[in-house]
Design brief:
Distance between the termini of chain A: 29 Å
Distance between the termini of chain B: 27 Å
Structural class of chain A: mainly alpha
Structural class of chain B: mainly alpha
Largest sheet of chain B: none
Strand content of chain A: under 5%
Oligomer: heterodimer
Helix content of chain B: over 70%
Largest interface: A-B, 113 and 109 residues
Number of helices of chain A: 15
Order of helices and strands of chain B: HHHHHHHHHHHHH
Radius of gyration of chain B: 24 Å
Largest sheet of chain A: 2 strands, antiparallel
Radius of gyration of chain A: 24 Å
Number of helices of chain B: 13
Strand order of the largest sheet of chain A: 1-2
């Protein structure tokens, strides 16, 4: 999804320059282009009412104390200073960062491995590609429920495999009951669900590497590892950076899996930023504080994407 | 000019891929087999991947006594209506942005782009308040409206497709005296059919799986959609996993079928986007 956004930014920036150069008087321009307004009117209306206005409104709400029942009271920056002094805000930020730091490299390393295997001339490629992609199209709620079941503290499949098959644990682990192991379970879901998409994007990158390079390297006696290290990895750098951006932004937005698997329990210790925001807004009905938390969140995601877009736009040279 | 692998290497590749595939599929197989187990055998150790006494009881019970048939219809109604609305609106929007350089175009375009980059959950609080004021809370139409409003991404996909159409096509049609709407309907739309299909599929899947807004805005148990029905059901009957998974399978079946039918287009779509980036 986000990749379209990225393309759109670049394309539009390029086009804006071209169009600006062919300026004509506003009247004339309007006369020639007025049918456009009829086309964009219905969609724009819906967009303004349900996205643009809410965005502004939530900014205003973030400066108020508001619970839907009493009239709202302007409290200035109180909600923001409260967030900065709220240990649960920081711990949910910590959990979000943990999730991102584990799932991004996890998806990228395993995704690249799968993509390399799928790029080889094998017969059943199409079948395997489909299998790896199925979790991507399956609903987050269903996958989260299955993982809740797999990580069940007593008779879950994960405990059984680790204890009775691999013998790496001696007793059952109460995965979802302890913050650290719950974070691990949630991150493993993230890797499982995102792996197929990452692999397909890597596959697209791999297929853009000219095969003559590999042939030439083979003739020179390069080993498979050397070809990977000195041809493949440098040449798919653009894809790697792209994935890094998109997966990091995606990691920050983790919500449903945490909401379903632990719901933040025990006592908010497994909350991530969005589940903490959600529980403040809709369980404690502290809408103003929730709005401030979501604005802080939006700023973080925005800053992350801007920093990475900048990083991405740098030309890669070989 | 296909590369060939030595037999041993390709055997290793197959084994690695198969091992990964087992891990990817195991949760689904386990879910499916649990949904076929009578209640007493759920969470039994060692786990069984093939039920000893397979039964469809859980499915029958999910649909009859637990209203999952109704939730299925609710989901279908919401997903189909919002898909129709969003496809029509985003096609119109995309065409407007692609065809004419009208005053205000840059500003409107960039505000849509900017809002699209903001995670949708950031908007959930003000959307909740707005829906409350418009009496759209606890209503399937409230879901339809919010899902339909997410037109920005579709608009970008379609705008690209419209911009790729040659300008001569439109000029000659206009000379023939066709109005802008006729040109749009008769000439432009049929030419972007592949992109329209992609947008339709993605919108449908998005609406079908949507969880958070439905959970937040729907109160009435008759109005639940499948994702929230399954979640709330699991919360109430935490131990009846067979039933929970029977309902889950009912919910994911349409998606998996659509994916398997359109998988080529799906994966091609994802890949071509990446190559452009």
């Amino acid at each position: 999804m986000a990749l379209v956004e990225y393309n759109a930014v670049q394309e539009t920036a390029a086009r804006a320059k071209v169009r600006a150069s062919e300026k004509m008087p506003l009247r004339e321009r309007f006369k020639r282009t007025w049918p456009a307004y009829l086309f964009i009117l219905p969609g724009m209306l819906l967009f303004v009412v349900w996205s643009f206005y809410p965005l502004l409104n939530s900014f205003i709400m973030s400066f108020a104390e508001w619970n839907l029942i009493k009239p709202s009271v302007f409290v200035g920056l109180d909600n923001y200073t409260r967030a900065l002094g709220d240990p649960l805000f920081w711990s949910s930020l910590g959990n979000t960062v943990f999730y991102t730091v584990v799932t991004v490299p996890g998806q990228m390393i395993l995704g690249l491995a799968v993509a390399l295997l799928l790029d080889a001339p094998l017969r059943a490629k199409g079948f395997f590609r489909t299998v790896y992609y199925i979790p991507v199209v399956t609903s987050w709620v269903v996958v989260s429920l299955v993982f809740t079941y797999l990580f069940n503290g007593q008779a879950g499949l994960v405990n059984w495999v680790l204890r009775d098959v691999l013998h790496v644990i001696s007793g059952n682990v109460n995965w979802l009951g302890d913050p650290l192991t719950a974070n691990i379970a949630i991150a493993s879901l993230g890797i499982y669900k995102g792996l197929g998409w990452t692999a397909v994007i890597f596959l697209a990158g791999l297929q853009s590497v000219p095969s003559e390079l590999y042939e030439a390297a083979s003739l020179d006696g390069a080993t498979a590892w050397q070809r990977l290290r000195y041809i493949t990895i440098p040449l798919i750098r653009q894809t790697t950076l792209f994935l890094l951006v998109i997966l990091t932004i995606g990691g920050f937005q983790v919500f449903i899996s945490v909401f379903v698997m632990t719901g933040g329990a025990p006592v908010h210790r497994t909350d991530v930023l969005l589940t903490y925001m959600y529980s403040n807004a809709f369980q404690s009905l502290d809408l103003g504080y929730g709005a401030a938390l979501s604005y802080l969140f939006a700023i973080m995601v925005f800053a992350l994407s801007m920093a990475q877009f900048k990083f991405l736009r740098r030309k890669v040279e070989y | 000019m296909e590369r060939r692998l030595p037999p041993l290497t390709s055997l290793i590749y197959y084994l690695l891929l198969a091992a990964g595939a087992v891990v990817m599929l195991a949760p689904f197989v386990y879910m499916f087999s649990t949904s076929l187990e009578p209640h007493a055998f759920v969470l039994e150790l060692p786990p069984r991947f093939i039920p000893a006494q397979p039964t469809l009881d859980n499915y029958v019970q999910a649909v009859t006594t637990n209203q999952f048939g109704r939730y299925f219809l609710n989901s279908m109604f919401v997903a189909v209506s919002s898909t129709i609305i969003t496809v029509i609106l985003s096609a119109l929007l995309a065409y407007g942005f692609a065809r004419w350089d009208f005053p205000g175009r840059q500003f409107m375009f960039f505000s849509m782009l900017g809002t699209m980059m903001i995670p949708s959950l950031v908007l959930i609080i003000p959307q909740f308040v707005l829906a409350k004021n418009l009496h759209l809370l606890n209503s399937l139409w409230g879901l339809v409206v919010v899902y339909s409003a997410g037109t920005a991404l579709n608009m970008f996909l379609l705008r690209g497709a419209f911009e790729d159409l040659p300008q001569d096509l439109f000029d000659s049609a206009l000379i023939d005296g066709a109005g802008p709407f006729t040109v749009f309907l008769r000439i432009a739309l049929p030419l972007v059919r592949p992109s329209l299909a992609a947008v339709t599929i993605f919108s449908f899947l998005g609406a079908w799986d949507e969880f958070t807004w439905a959970l937040t805005s729907i109160n009435d148990s008759d109005l639940r959609t499948l994702p929230i029905a399954i979640r709330l059901f699991q919360q109430q009957h935490g131990t009846e996993w067979g039933l929970v998974f029977a309902a889950s399978i009912i919910a994911i079946l349409p998606v998996v079928i659509i994916f398997i039918i359109f998988q080529r287009q799906f994966i091609k779509g994802v890949m071509s986007g990446a190559l452009k980036g």
